[in-house]
Every structure is written in C-alpha cells, then in structure tokens.
C-alpha cells in the first residue's frame, strides 16, 4: 500500500508491564495513538486521559512496527508493541467500553503498520 497515509487512530488504552512472565496492568486510564509523521515515520504515543502531554512516544520506520495481540490474555484485549531491533516489548490494554469496536481499531492499526510511503514525496 502506498500513497496517502492512513488516518491516525486514537483509542482508550492503559499501560501494562511484564515482570517474571506476568503482565500487570497500570490502573491509570489513558489514550494510545498511532499515526504517520510528516517524515513518514510511524509514531505511537501514550498519554493519561487527564493530560494532553504524551508520556511515551515511539517511532518506527515503515515496516518495523509490530502491534501484537497477546494470545495468552484471558480477555483478549492485551497488546504489545514489538521492537524488532532489541526484542523490547511495551504492553497496553484496551480500555474501550465496547469490545465490538476492537476489530475496527485493529484494522486501522494494521493499515498504519503496513503503510509504505511513496518514495518520491
């Protein structure tokens, strides 16, 4: 896919941390945003809902982002960002009240994840 970048997607999501093979959720409510920068990088940002300032920002070259659903999660609403160059993982859990929207959110993220910018822009 090339041409125009896909639209940004922001949804309600919390942070989580992996320790000793257990993922523990941070109780804070937040937003997770995926988008394409003017420099054609993929940007993933997390902020608490009571702040407009992003606490975490991650940048990926096109093709380097992996946003993976955690298969062992009982609710199926836990995800992680995978950094292929370091095997680092950052965990997030969906806080969207309507689980029926999860497929649409995942589809929008997949469009950003697989976006390939035109080379001549």
TrEMBL record:
<dbReference type="InterPro" id="IPR038633">
    <property type="entry name" value="Rpn13/ADRM1_Pru_sf"/>
</dbReference>
<dbReference type="GO" id="GO:0061133">
    <property type="term" value="F:endopeptidase activator activity"/>
</dbReference>
<dbReference type="GO" id="GO:0005737">
    <property type="term" value="C:cytoplasm"/>
</dbReference>
<dbReference type="GO" id="GO:0008541">
    <property type="term" value="C:proteasome regulatory particle, lid subcomplex"/>
</dbReference>
<keyword id="KW-0647">Proteasome</keyword>
<dbReference type="InterPro" id="IPR044868">
    <property type="entry name" value="Rpn13/ADRM1_Pru"/>
</dbReference>
<protein>
    <recommendedName>
        <fullName>Pru domain-containing protein</fullName>
    </recommendedName>
</protein>
<dbReference type="GO" id="GO:0005634">
    <property type="term" value="C:nucleus"/>
</dbReference>
<keyword id="KW-0539">Nucleus</keyword>
<keyword id="KW-0963">Cytoplasm</keyword>
<dbReference type="GO" id="GO:0070628">
    <property type="term" value="F:proteasome binding"/>
</dbReference>
<feature type="domain" description="Pru">
    <location>
        <begin position="3"/>
        <end position="119"/>
    </location>
</feature>
<dbReference type="InterPro" id="IPR006773">
    <property type="entry name" value="Rpn13/ADRM1"/>
</dbReference>
<dbReference type="Pfam" id="PF04683">
    <property type="entry name" value="Rpn13_ADRM1_Pru"/>
</dbReference>
């Amino acid at each position: 896919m090339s041409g125009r970048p896909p639209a940004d997607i922001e949804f309600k999501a919390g942070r989580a941390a992996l320790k000793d093979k257990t993922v523990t959720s941070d109780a804070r409510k937040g937003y997770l945003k995926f988008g394409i920068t003017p420099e054609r990088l993929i940007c993933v940002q997390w902020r608490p809902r009571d702040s407009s300032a992003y606490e975490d920002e991650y940048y990926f070259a096109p093709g380097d982002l992996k946003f993976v659903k955690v298969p062992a999660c009982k609710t199926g609403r836990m995800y992680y960002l995978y950094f292929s160059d370091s095997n680092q993982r950052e965990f997030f859990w969906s806080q969207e009240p309507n689980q029926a929207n999860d497929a649409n959110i995942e589809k929008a993220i997949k469009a950003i994840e697989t976006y390939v910018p035109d080379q001549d822009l």
